[in-house]
Amino acid sequence: MWNVTQDDIEAMAIGAGILGTGGGGSPYIGRLRMQEILKQGYTVQIMPLEELADDARVCEVGWMGAPTVGVEKLPNGDESVHVVAALEEYIGHKIDAIACSEVGGANSIAPLEAGALTNKPVVDGDAMGRAFPEMQMSTLFINGVGCTPAAMVDEKGNTVIFGHLTDSRTFEKFGRDLCVQMGCVSLLALPVMSGADVKAHSVPRTLTLVKKVGDAVLHARTVKSPFVDAVLDVTGGKEIFAGKLIDVQRRTIAGFARGELVAEGLGSYRGDFLHIAFQNENLVAWRGNRDSRDEVVACVPDLICMLESDTGEPITTEQLRYGLRINILAIPCTDKFRTEKALKVVGPAAFGYPEVTYNPLPKRPGQGIE
User: Fold this and answer.
1) Disulfide check for 245: which of 20, 119, 278, 324 has CB 3.0–4.6 Å away?
2) What is the CATH number of domain 231-351?
3) What is the pTM of this model?
4) Among candidates 109, 92, 102, which has minimal Cα distance to 57?
5) Phi and psi of 21, rounded to 5°?
6) Is 254's pLDDT higher than 90?
7) What are 142-175's pLDDT values in tens digits?
8) DSSP label at 44?
9) Is the preceding omega at residue 67 within 30 degrees of 0, hence cis?
């Protein structure tokens, strides 16, 4: 195990923002909240997957909602305590460890907050190896782990228990409707899982990975070396574009931030344009001209990640605005999402792009998302 420090949180917020591919909630707000918790004397330990007992009771803790709302509608700070306690009361047992639902944005920080405030270790892994917008897009649920029992709370203390739902797609529908009624932001603890299931189906060592990515960016700032090279040395993948944002169409619909951006190339990309469609997270990137999409250069489930060119800071969906100078990276996803079964849930067709063919990015052995 390792104890999370203030410096770790700074690095993890950067790494989580990058791997969040635009979504997962604001890593900046998550960082501020977690750093304050550590200042108050709380501690949290990261537990290797291998050390989790097979019969341990584990639940994920993570936020649901639209990132554009989450930067304005702030939590009260007690949600993670209430949601874990509600789930424990319902099942009549203590939860032994906290897991991460998606290693992206604020949802990389949420389990750390829950672990610190409830005095439980946090498992070094997650169910996506990135962020995705919908509940069923999880390595756990794709492989048959049940999605309930679960608990949901809002910042006012309203609490909902989900005793049984037939599948994770149904949970997405019911949970999303309730989340909208809660103001488009809510915190979930779900499901109650065995340690054996968590070990069998999670993407391993992803909290360690986000720290490595963030450390690489911070080191690049110190020595004034390229941020893009620093990130890709950890994650694998490639740069697919560099330029500035010239158009952003974004709207909050049914608990999601949906839209499209257009970037104009600079430097070696001058004369090119890149279009990206997003639903909280970046989904498909096309190269083309100002008004047309001509060639797919990256798509889900691989990661399309955006960095601010001067600082290496991740750019999330709610931060998109005209004039931003950006570098865009494509990073290989976990092998757990490259199966035929998984691609039906997380491939481009699942997001309404059946005409887009997924061509997996090559991976380097021993590097990046496992």
Assistant:
1) 324
2) 2.40.390
3) 0.96
4) 92
5) 50, 35
6) no
7) 999 999 999 999 999 999 999 999 999 999 999 9
8) -
9) no
User: Taking Cα atoms as reference points, which of 234, 349, 359, 203 lies closest to residue 296?
Assistant: 359
Q: Which residue reads 């001209």 in tokens? A: 289
Both structure tokens of 199: 């070990």
- Please give the Cα distance from 20 to 40 (Å, whole number): 28
**Angstrom distance (rounded) from CA 102 to CA 133:** 10
Structure tokens at 164: 């049984």
**For the chain, what are the domain ranges?**
2-204, 231-351
Q: For position 255, what pLDDT does the model report?
A: 78
Distance CA 333, CA 236 (A): 10
Q: What is the DSSP string of 151-183?
A: EEE-TT--EEEE---S-HHHHHHHHHHHHHHTT
Asked if residues 322 and 247 have their Cβ atoms less than 8 Å apart, the reply is yes
Task: Kindly tell me the burial class for residue 98, based on how many C-beta atoms sit within 10 Å of its own C-beta (0-12, 13-18, 19 or more).
Answer: buried
Q: Give the chain's length.
A: 370
- The radius of gyration of the chain's CA atoms, rounded to the nearest angstrom, is 19
- Report the C-alpha gap between 285 and 279 in whole angstroms: 13
Two domains, one topology: 2-204 and 231-351: no
69-102 residue pLDDT tens: 888 888 899 999 999 999 999 999 999 999 999 9
Please tell me the CATH superfamily of domain 2-204, with its number: CV3147-like domain (3.40.1610.10)
The pLDDT score that the predictor gives to residue 212 is 98
**Structural tokens at position 42:** 């709380």
> How far is the C-alpha of 267 from the C-alpha of 309, rounded, in Å?
12
Residue 114 contacts by C-beta under 8 Å, 6 or more apart in sequence?
Answer: 61, 80, 81, 83, 84, 98, 120, 122, 189
